[in-house]
């Protein structure tokens, strides 16, 4: 009925509403000593109270989200409008967020459908409560709650906050949240418009433009009872700031499609321009007399700004990216397929170099094997296609003007009776700086069988990144600055990706759809040096492992090795007193007292990048019931357990709380000796293999109800349902980005499980 209405040009109106309410609870957190256990281990620091610090700053949150959509129109004009409101609470107290967004898109066809106009408008307003400058929840409050002495009280007998001001970075987490106030407000307005013109049947001319304006305003204050005032002397520390970001995007394309017999081809050419403008300003101040007339709403009355001690700053940046591109596709008899593309791009970040523009080609070939005569009699594959491709893409530097000499303000000099801030070099010129290039070769197979009930793909790829941008140390003189940014290193990634979708059961009342994915990847750093700039060594250490107030490097990046290697001391046992036994540089075993802890005795003790990933999703439908289960896992990698590294040694000069596992025997022998100094070693590296049931959703769909309700679906879901792993920390799924993957920090938030009840209704 609706299709025929469209054909006649009559108007349709559809209204859809969806909403849900959810709550969550901590499913796993650091298992720290309680008050009696702590007093047993450190009796001299027993304050006589029993405080669960994590419980003091957490809650049972309630969130609700509502979404309303309207759509309608005719065959010549249609629209869609959407309004969304969300109110969310985090598991931590004073972590609140509200969001409102509205969107409308209108499409109009003109001149016998030769012209199509599109216009869209998106408005969004966000608000989040802030207990830290420029952010939302003060993350350090959770880390303080984790490691704080459980025998200490929250407040003194007179009602004031209990603080131990003599201990470094030791703060009452409840006071941190209570004695701070602020918010961050974001406003976004995005326009997009487009026009499509078909002067003749096979030619399409198109122009798209978007304008996106994002404004952030923030304010934050700490009271005179905050630790920053009581301990550090920053009475009423406050900050206020704002920023504006504007992005403009223009794209023009012309496409010609044609068919000559069994030959089909498409030719497309285009131009794009992308510009980003960013400005911000901020003011910090303190020295307020009270909490009533000062703060970030009246930041100018603080004394620090008048005394020249506070901070005022601003910045501005502009970047743009210009591209000319072309693409051609060809197919013969839907059997032999060819695609070739070329992109020529210029980036403002490379201004002043000889290589601001880059040329990036790509080509792919396809062969639909099932179209061949020798495949006509087979009944295994409905469709089988072989793909081969090669392409080059470019990445420009993130920062601007790295290829030219720049200046900055330096130290002060006394000249003509006054102090003048000097201007010093900030970078060396390098006209040879250019785009990083990712060159990828891939071979793939797409298949479909069993009347389309089985389909999937298998891909093999080899990705090589040439000209990695790196900061090379250079001598001064002859250089004016001790670092030059240049292209040098080469990285290689190889892997296989497999995806299979199956409908094992397809009946009238019951259907089961399942999909499985698998991927394996290996990487290797081929070189660090370039043709001009060389590194002194074929490796460098990076990352930080923090423990007991100390910091050491956690990873080593080395030519010929994989990215993600942990690098530290290797322990293989403990003696009868609970002291480490090490493996030195020669593979010999050395006891704790004789081990020198020389850098040469460090080893590769693990790798934080999973070797392979897997996923398995299932959807089952029985009449009006539906059940969806999503699962995934990662395997063949290790994790640095930062919590155990900090809280599983008994030598506790800071007398912070400890994990219950501090009493466990090491290597199955005896607990770690109190004379052993805290350190980063292989004992705190664990296998991180995991399998997660991410989401379980059960729903029921009603038929048409009454005159106005076309459909109604009720559902309930569990997010982060189960995690299966031997890892002892909170969650083995940690960051795998950059050069330092696999570090589970000491202050990792607890694992949260969420429960949701929702409704979808169409009118």
Describe what you observe in this structure.
The protein has 8 helices and 36 strands. With 763 residues, it is mainly beta. The chain has a domain of 174 residues. The chain has a 22-stranded antiparallel barrel. Strands 20-23-24-28 form a 4-stranded antiparallel β-sheet, with no helix packed on it. A 3-stranded antiparallel β-sheet has the order 25-26-27, with no helix packed on it. A hairpin with a 6-residue loop joins strand 23 and strand 24. The longest helix is centred in the first third of the chain and has 9 residues.
Gist of the model:
The protein is mostly beta strands and 763 residues long.
The radius of gyration is 31 Å
**Main beta sheet strand tally, sense and closure:** 22 strands, antiparallel, barrel
Assembly form of the protein: single chain
Query: Which of globular, elongated, flat, extended, rod-shaped describes the shape?
Result: globular
The amount of beta strand, in percent, is over 45%
Helix content: under 10%
Number of strands: 36
Q: What is the terminal separation in angstroms?
A: 16 Å
Structural class computed from helices and strand pairing:
mainly beta
Instruction: Provide mean pLDDT, rounded.
Output: 93
Instruction: Count every helix, treating DSSP H or I runs of 4 or more residues as helices.
Output: 8
Low-confidence stretches: 1-9
Helix/strand layout:
Blueprint lengths: L1 H7 L3 E17 L6 H7 L11 H5 L4 E12 L3 E13 L6 E15 L4 E15 L9 H9 L25 H6 L1 E18 L5 E20 L4 H4 L7 E23 L2 E23 L17 H4 L5 E21 L3 E12 L9 E12 L12 E15 L10 E10 L2 E10 L8 E14 L4 E20 L9 E24 L3 E18 L11 E4 L2 E3 L2 E3 L2 E4 L6 E4 L1 E5 L5 E4 L5 E3 L11 E5 L4 E11 L2 E11 L2 E4 H6 L37 E3 L2 E13 L8 E15 L17 E2 L6 E12 L1
């Amino acid at each position: 009925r609706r299709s025929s209405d469209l054909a006649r040009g009559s108007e349709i109106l559809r209204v859809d509403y969806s909403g849900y309410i959810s709550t969550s609870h901590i499913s796993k957190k650091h298992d720290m000593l309680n008050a009696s256990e702590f007093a047993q281990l450190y009796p001299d620091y027993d304050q006589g109270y029993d405080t669960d610090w994590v419980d003091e700053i957490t809650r049972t949150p309630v969130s609700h989200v509502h979404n309303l959509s309207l759509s309608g129109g005719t065959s010549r004009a249609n629209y869609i409008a959407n309004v969304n409101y969300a109110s969310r609470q985090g598991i931590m107290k004073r972590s609140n967020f509200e969001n409102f967004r509205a969107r409308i898109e209108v499409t109009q066809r003109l001149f016998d459908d030769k012209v199509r106009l599109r216009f869209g408008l998106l408005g969004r307003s966000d608000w989040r409560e802030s207990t830290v400058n420029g952010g939302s929840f003060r993350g350090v409050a959770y880390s303080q709650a984790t490691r704080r002495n459980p025998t200490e009280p929250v407040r003194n007998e007179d009602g004031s906050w209990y603080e131990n001001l003599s201990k470094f970075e030791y703060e009452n987490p409840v006071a941190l949240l209570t004695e701070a106030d602020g918010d961050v407000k974001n406003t976004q307005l995005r326009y997009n418009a487009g026009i499509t013109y078909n002067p003749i049947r096979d030619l399409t001319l198109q122009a798209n433009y978007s304008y996106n304006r994002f404004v952030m305003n923030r304010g934050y204050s700490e009271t005179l009872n905050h630790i920053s005032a009581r301990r550090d002397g920053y009475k009423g520390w406050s900050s206020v700031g704002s920023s504006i970001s504007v992005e403009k995007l223009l794209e023009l394309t012309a496409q010609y499609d044609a068919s000559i017999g069994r030959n089909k081809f498409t030719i497309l050419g285009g131009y794009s321009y992308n510009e980003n403008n960013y400005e911000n300003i901020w003011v910090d101040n303190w020295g307020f007399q009270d909490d009533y007339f000062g703060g970030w709403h009246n930041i100018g009355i603080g004394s620090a700004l008048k005394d020249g001690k506070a901070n005022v700053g601003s910045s501005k940046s502009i970047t743009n990216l210009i591209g000319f591109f072309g693409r051609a596709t060809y197919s013969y008899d839907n059997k032999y397929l060819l695609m070739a593309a070329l992109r020529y791009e210029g980036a403002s970040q490379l201004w002043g170099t000889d290589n601001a523009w880059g040329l990036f080609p790509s080509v792919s070939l396809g062969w639909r094997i099932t179209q061949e005569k020798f495949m006509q009699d087979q009944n295994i594959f409905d469709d089988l296609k072989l793909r081969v491709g090669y392409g080059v893409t470019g990445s420009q530097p993130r920062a601007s003007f790295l290829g030219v000499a720049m200046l900055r303000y330096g130290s002060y000099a006394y000249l003509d009776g006054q102090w003048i801030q000097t201007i010093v070099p900030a970078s060396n010129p390098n006209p040879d700086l250019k785009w990083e290039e990712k060159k990828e070769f891939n071979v793939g197979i797409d298949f479909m069988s069993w009347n389309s009930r089985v389909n999937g793909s298998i891909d093999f790829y080899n990705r090589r990144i040439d000209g990695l941008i790196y900061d090379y140390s250079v001598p001064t003189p002859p250089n004016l600055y001790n670092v030059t940014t240049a292209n040098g290193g080469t990285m290689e990634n190889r892997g296989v990706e497999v995806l299979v979708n199956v409908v094992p059961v397809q009946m009238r009342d019951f259907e089961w759809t399942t999909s499985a994915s698998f991927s394996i990847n290996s990487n290797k750093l081929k070189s660090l040096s370039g043709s001009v700039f060389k590194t002194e060594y074929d490796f460098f250490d990076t990352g930080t492992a923090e423990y007991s107030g100390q910091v050491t490097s956690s990873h080593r990046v080395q030519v010929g090795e994989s990215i993600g290697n942990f690098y530290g001391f290797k322990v293989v046992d403990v003696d009868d007193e609970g002291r480490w036994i090490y493996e030195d540089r020669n593979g010999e075993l050395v006891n704790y007292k004789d081990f020198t802890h020389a850098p040469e005795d460090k080893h590769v003790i693990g790798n934080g990048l999973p070797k392979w990933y897997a996923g398995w999703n299932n959807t089952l439908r029985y009449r009006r019931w539906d059940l969806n289960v999503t699962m995934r896992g990662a395997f063949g990698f290790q994790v640095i357990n930062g919590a155990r590294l900090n809280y599983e040694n008994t030598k506790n000069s800071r007398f912070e709380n400890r994990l219950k596992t501090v009493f466990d025997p090491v290597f199955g022998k005896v607990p770690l000796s109190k004379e052993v100094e805290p350190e980063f070693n292989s004992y705190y590296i664990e296998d991180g293999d995991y399998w997660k049931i991410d989401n379980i959703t059960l729903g029921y769909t009603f038929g048409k109800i009454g005159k106005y309700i076309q459909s109604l679906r009720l559902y309930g879901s569990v997010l982060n349902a189960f995690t299966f792993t031997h890892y002892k920390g909170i969650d083995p799924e940690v960051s795998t980005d950059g050069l330092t993957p696999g570090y589970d920090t000491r202050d990792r938030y607890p694992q949260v499980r969420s429960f949701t009840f929702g409704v979808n209704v169409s009118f």
